[in-house]
Amino acid sequence: xxxxxxxxxxxxxxxxxxxxxxxxxxxxxxxxxxxxxxxxxxxxxxxxxxxxxxxxxxxxxxxxxxxxxxxxxxxxxxxxxxxxxxxxxxxxxxxxxxxxxxxxxxxxxxxxxxxxxxxxxxxxxxxxxxxxxxxxxxxxxxxxxxxxxxxxxxxxxxxxxxxxxxxxxxxxxxxxxxxxxxxxxxxxxxxxxxxxxxxxxxxxxxxxxxxxxxxxxxxxxxxxxxxxxxxxxxxxxxxxx
Amino acid sequence: xxxxxxxxxxxxxxxxxxxxxxxxxxxxxxxxxxxxxxxxxxxxxxxxxxxxxxxxxxxxxxxxxxxxxxxxxxxxxxxxxxxxxxxxxxxxxxxxxxxxxxxxxxxxxxxxxxxxxxxxxxxxxxxxxxxxxxxxxxxxxxxxxxxxxxxxxxxxxxxxxxxxxxxxxxxxxxxxxxxxxxxxxxxxxxxxxxxxxxxxxxxxxxxxxxxxxxxxxxxxxxxxxxxxxxxxxxxxxxxxxxxxxxxxxxxxxxxxxxxxxxxxxxxxxxxxxxxxxxxxxxxxxxxxxxxxxxxxxxxxxxxxxxxxxxxxxxxxxxxxxxxxxxxxxxxxxxxxxxxxxxxxxxxxxxxxxxxxxxxxxxxxxxxxxxxxxxxxxxxxxxxxxxxxxxxxxxxxxxxxxxxxxxxxxxxxxxxxxxxxxxxx
Lengths: 241, 424
Description:
The complex is a heterodimer of chains A (241) and B (424). Chain A has helices at 3-7, 16-30, 115-119, 124-127, 236-239; strands at 34-44, 49-59, 63-70, 78-82, 85-90, 95-99, 128-138, 141-150, 159-165, 171-177, 183-195, 198-208, 215-225.
């Protein structure tokens, strides 16, 4: 699309369709039919730092199953997301609890991520109206700055600001705002690698701006796209196995 | 002289009956109001001290800043050593580590699926060790409604009202969904050993009491405690002594900028409760004072009316040659007798009604629904030594002063005009 040559020259001349195009390119990189990945999540609190490893299976943006592998206290804890429902299984109590209502706002394993953040996997173009507001260089990479404003009411963040790598179409930074305009979370993405023809950030640092601590570093240690995932994984029965 | 005055008062009931009734009524109300104020404020402070604030509380500085939210991520680490240090440094006080926590209690059905859920306010306290005084301090045994006290790890008490709401019984399992010290979700099973009722709406609507070691295990708080609370050995809060203890403890940590440094706060320094303690001292005295002044005005007025009503009698006595000073003194002696009789009757009646209110109380649980203040659902009066003499201030002093002021008129009467006045 020739307009991308123009983007870097004259931002004021860009339309909303260009912003939507950028978002779609981003979604093409970031989402997939299915994926299996292992990750480590390092939570840097004020007093302690903990690393939690997990394996996740996901299909589109509707099904996801995560099993925590370490440390011992979290080992065996499993989470299942089906559409807009979320269950958590605790091996120590042998109970499966559905997370709903205000519990969705709780932190996942003490990290800077909430269950609500995990749940809202809808396509950005379905939820937000995007507008290009400028450009900036981040870590030597040229980025488009996109301002996203919610066009639906059932959304955790009323507006977002995204810095999108202008060549790879991967977000490098994101700020999430409340309706009042208060900055709630800041995300920085790095270690962008090319896997199966798509650009993908291996490291994401989440910072809950209302929480003390130095944020949560989420690092993907291995990832495979378009794998065959058995259907039974996405059942409540799999939680207890 | 006194016998003569008494005879006069007994035989002429118009001189004694109404004044005594007015004095006794005023004194009864004064005593009753004072015991009521002392009762409601004292009970509220005591309940908060026992369940939440202690007479003294040790927390981290960061925890103390947000203590109303019980932020366990800012809890004391190495609580065992700190507790032992406090016991050695201040042996005159009783110390106990506690963890306050919030969460959701989930009651499972036979298939392990959620049957009912409700928000809970939990306290982790020493329920199982040999030397614990916590069950007695919180009157847990007497508060038991069903079941028994926890005897082993994993057993908890929940409030009866909460148990009914969740449709659970002693012997059944519940799951506590909370947040660990690190902010992770915690899901932990407990066995209900018994249900309790504390007579406070905020405690009864959803409280869970578990042994502190169980709470430590559930909330990943090994050797940690949200707070260490101290109580005076005699069970009564003494602000002056508490301040001395806290100053001594805090001086050892002064100048340490670490937000996790322990800090000691007395009951009167603990946020809204501190204000309540200070306010209660002033309030009880101010309310009593205002009421005493109001009653004094009433009784003073009664004294004045008495003096005016006896205008003719005084004139006649002066006309018969009785000295003005003698008439004045006898009126005062009479008012003293009336004041004493009225105050004694009023104090007895006031103490009797106060005793009824102390024993049976007034149930205000309906009014307390939805309240966030930890106060008893049954308001009771509290009789203190002051109540045995407090009523004499308006009862005796005001009556006498009223009579003294109205009696001044005696000295203004002129003998030459007396017969004219009497003829009229």
